What does this fold into?
Amino acid sequence: MSWGPFSLEGKHAVVTGGARGIGFGIVRRLVEAGADVLVADVDGPLAEEKAALLTGPGRAIGLGADVSELGAGDAMVARATEAFGSVDILVNNAGIFPQVPMLDMTPELWDKVQSINLRGLAFVSKAFATRMVEQGVGGKIVNIASIDGLHPSMVGLAAYDSSKGGVVMFTRNFALELAPHKINVNAIAPGGIATEGTAAPLEGSGMTQAEMDAFMEGYIKTKIPMGRMGEPDDIATTAVFLASSAANFMTGEIVVVDGGTLLT
It folds into this structure.
């Protein structure tokens, strides 16, 4: 298929948390749109395995990377530059969402969520933006936020919601900083997306699988006007748009993709 103004032919991208769920959906569409993609994931062998499944017109390679480690961004930049020659697109997708009420929260779990979802995203972005500025031809940074960064969905996600609210404001502020360098920084705020992670009870929720299934059925009926969970591809195609020339005059924006959930 022709991607027209959404074509990423000749572009080089990195997707964090790219080996599963929303991340792999994004990788697949970026490759289909013509980009070469580094699939970065804390599970390095899985990243390499998933990258090997994809064929043209772009190509994909895998890399083990833990975004909570402060040198992770530099390592990804180095590997992508080595493999592709430059970096044009970063998609910050890596994240965790344990469900623990704040009254039961430990400082260790709070810090873990922030170190991956917010601090990791920020310093990976810094590393890539530094390289993009050096290259002098602009670039695109796409952050995966959440509708929970705009409105809480349930008890137990205080740490997650705080981190994603931080992603929203980081996106807007970093967009302002990078605009003179022709680097666009935007975010996608997904609603409920059917992935391996959302199909199982959330870590710390105490739910059985049957209870989780019943909860999701009720959530879809009462909270999603379009009557279904989103699919990774709903986010992936939006990511392609934000990474393409079609979004050249957009920066600092939060694109909500939630089937109408926030309307309720």
The chain has a mean pLDDT of 95. The CA atoms of residues 31 and 58 lie 5 Å apart. The longest strand covers residues 183-190.
